[in-house]
Amino acid sequence: MIPFIQSLIDATSAGAVYALAALGIGLVFGVLRLANFANGEIITGAAYALLLLWPVSWPLALVASVMVAIALSLLMDLAVFRWMRSQSPAALLIASFGVSILLQRFYEGVFGARVRSGSVAPALTQSVNVGGFRLSLLALVAIVLAGILLLAVHLFLSRSRMGLQVQAAAADFRVARILGIRSGVVIAVTLGMSGVLAAAVAFILTAQSGAVDPTFGVQATVFGLIGAVIGGLNRVGGAVVGGFAVGFTLSLFTSWLPSGFDDFRIAFVYLLVIVVLLIVPNGIFAGRTAKERT
Fold first, then answer.
1. Is residue 2's pLDDT more than 70?
2. Residue 55: what pLDDT?
3. Positive or negative, the Cα torsion across 60, 201, 42, 284?
4. How far apart (Å, rounded) are the C-alpha atoms in residues 22 and 226?
5. Is the pLDDT of residue 16 over 60?
6. pTM of the model
């Protein structure tokens, strides 16, 4: 019974992590029509900051990882994406692949190609007794952290003036600009939020693995992007649900599949994605039409 409950909690924790990754991707796509594959390198940059600064001071490491993630998000837009506003989502996606590879080579040059190991939040690797069950503290923290961030983003988007402007820009960017919404501020706020979410993903994954390499954030971004596509890239709520579903399913496959099928668990996830997209090509929660960015 305990392994079953632990597997469900681990699956919920994995789902929460990928929901955060998918939310960051969905927010940026909603405003910029950019499915940012380089989000993985934002996660990696934040992870390096955590790993290097945690032995010095954990508050400094947390603050630095968030600042690094936000700075990378804004710099990518300043250096590349702002000059491609009128391009198609496909062109922007290809550009983000280029930025991703460039940053991976940059990390290799600065930190080396080999895995760097360290201890981040070691206290979270312990287990706690909940109702007679010993459960992973890190999994519980990941669920709580993801819940707080998802609620905070929801309240920001639905209750604040700036959040409503972000939603308006995501619904129809051209009309929002005509109505006087400051597009530059909206884009900066959206990128900043995606940076904070990437830093949260980096914290959970770094605490789990204690190791970072130049491609550290790629897998989380791929599954987050898959989740966002399943839920509907133009629907923030759909992206969250899709990201959670991908992480939850992947974790259950890891726990429940026989050992001989370990190498196929990711293939099974992709197979499910194909089935879903054959039924609903635009995503489960997507609208019928895609809006043009001008």
1. no
2. 93
3. negative
4. 8
5. yes
6. 0.89
Cα-based distances in Å from 21 to 55, 194, 202, 246, 260: 26, 8, 10, 11, 29
Is residue 237 classed exposed, middle or buried when 0-12, 13-18 and 19+ CB atoms within 10 A define those classes? middle
| Cα distance between residue 164 and residue 233, in whole Å | 19
**Do 131 and 120 contact (CB within 8 A), yes or no?**
no
Residue 50 has, within 13 A of its CA and on its CB side, a CA count of 33
pLDDT for 294: 47
Q: Helix (H, G, I), strand (E, B), or coil: what is residue 127?
A: strand
Write out the DSSP string of 153-185: HHHHHHHSHHHHHHHHHHH-HHHHHHTT--HHH
In terms of Cα–Cα distance, which of 155, 285, 270 is closest to 228? 285
In DSSP notation, 237-256 reads HHHHHHHHHHHHHHHHHHHH
Over the stretch 204-253, which tens digit does the pLDDT of each residue have? 999 999 899 999 999 999 989 888 888 887 778 888 888 888 888 888 88
- Mean pLDDT calculated for residue range 28-38: 88
